[in-house]
Amino acid sequence: MDVRDQFKNWFLISGVLFSLGLGPMGCSSPTSHLSKLGSWNSSESKKKSKPELPPSGPTTVIADGTAIALGQPEADLAARSRFDQRFIELNQQGRTQAAELLVTRHPDLALPLLQTSQITEDANRLQLAAAYDRLCNYSPENGWQAILNNEVPQPAVVEYMQMRSKWMATLTEGKFLELEKMPLITTAQKTNQPLLLTDALHQGGIGWLLMENPQQAAAAFRQAVLSAPNQLTPQTVESLLLESEALRRAGDMASANERWNQAVQTAADMLILPRPIATPTMWERIAYLKPVGMPWPGCVGQRFQELALGKPNPLRTDLLRQLAMSASMGSGMDPQCWVHSAIGSWHQERGNSQEALIELKKAETKALPQQVAWVHIAQGRALNGIGQTGPATALLMQMISRQDGSPEMYAAMCDLGIFRLQSGATQAGVHLLRKSLEKNTAVGWPGRNAAEADYALGLLMLGESQKGTERLMASQQRFEAEGEVELLAKSLWNQQKYLEEVEPKNQEAKQWVAGKLTTLRL
């Protein structure tokens, strides 16, 4: 097999994708009635009669109490394991920025690993704790580094970790009444670690919720929020959402709506942090638990717009940028379009094309007329991701057939060209990319430069080495100037692979690419 054919095969397998991953409130101590959670005062809870819900108002979003309490009972343990292995691999290779970005993209996979870890000397686990602490702006003294580092004897922390493990096992088995015998919160108090106390209060709230005592559950979740060392974190959002659900079950609709609103505002504010924090699952739960008739807070659209038009970061997707720029800087957009577009494009970047397609279909129903085409382009990528090449092609052809010279038309043509490259139709793919990029220099759109880099790879696959290399270098220079470090790394990795397979004797070029990647630590 010719080395260029080998490169083509690698290109097809990689799908032109480079992946770094898997492909202010004050603190307060627990109130007296909350401290009873430590010993689970069952006699008090049994005296309370089960409240009746009002005849009107929001319906139960999830009927199964276990499901709503545990949050994500179907969580993919395999994905968590892959995340752990990938973090260790990147860390051991010295690719520290790549490891940091992995945590930024998957905080929902990083946290459970930390919560189930033991005090350790493992450098990889401590690096994960440090990366998560930096993301959530926890200080070294109050973060996971302090909890997991075994340099200082911490018998109280060991005791809590063991108690938590038994707690989770009992809860998972559905033996809710046995939770009364486990002093989880009082054990956490002994550690003097705010994060562990917050965790224990959150788990205590789940216990009360499962034992059908929503008043005590709501009080525990409230205290979990107040005890957190930092409010702008996914854990705070989760506690607020569960507090809202507990209050709803207790019949306090006004307070339930207020807490949901607070959860949304917190999650929205996290989008504009110096290091934005969000996960598709967190925003899915926010949308799913939205009270009937409750409007979205006005800050949602504003925060997503700021994210879309701000500096490059792992959460700023092409779709969000395209929506913002096509709707007069994002004005007039339905908040639900922002939410579902973000969830869908984040899922797509995680490789969850089926989930992405579902959310993008929801976004389409709320998009402005001038935005629908961009949502369709994103849907085309999702369809292609699940192997539905025919429907993906048909969707893109609707825009290409307009021949109106719009950014959407050229973007759709680029995507179709990339699909052709991925399927092995190199000539056809390069032809479409040439027509949309080389013969069109005046029309730009978010994502064009990434398509330029893919076009350069297509030229290399056809043997047009000089032209392909020149265009690839030009794309890299634009990535660097715009601060798109991940796209720059993708391009460099692709170039490195090409040199290894096709030009193995070009030591100067290979050393230059390797030096750039070392500098980026990606």
The helicity comes to 55-70%
What portion of residues belong to β-strands? under 5%
Number of strand segments:
0
Task: Specify the structural class.
Answer: mainly alpha
Radius of gyration: 25 Å
Low-confidence segments, ≥5 residues, pLDDT <50? 9-75
> Can you summarize the main beta sheet?
none
The gist of it:
It contains 28 helices and no strands. It is mainly alpha-helical. Mean pLDDT is 85; it is low at 9-75.
Task: Describe the protein in words.
The protein is mainly α. Helices cover 67% and strands 0% of the residues. The protein contains 28 helices and no strands. It has helices spanning 3-14, 32-35, 42-47, 65-70, 77-92, 96-105, 107-115, 123-136, 144-148, 155-172, 184-189, 194-210, 214-227, 234-249, 253-269, 280-288, 299-309, 318-326, 335-349, 353-366, 372-385, 389-400, 407-423, 426-438, 448-461, 465-482, 485-502, 507-520. The protein is globular. It starts with a helix and ends with a helix.
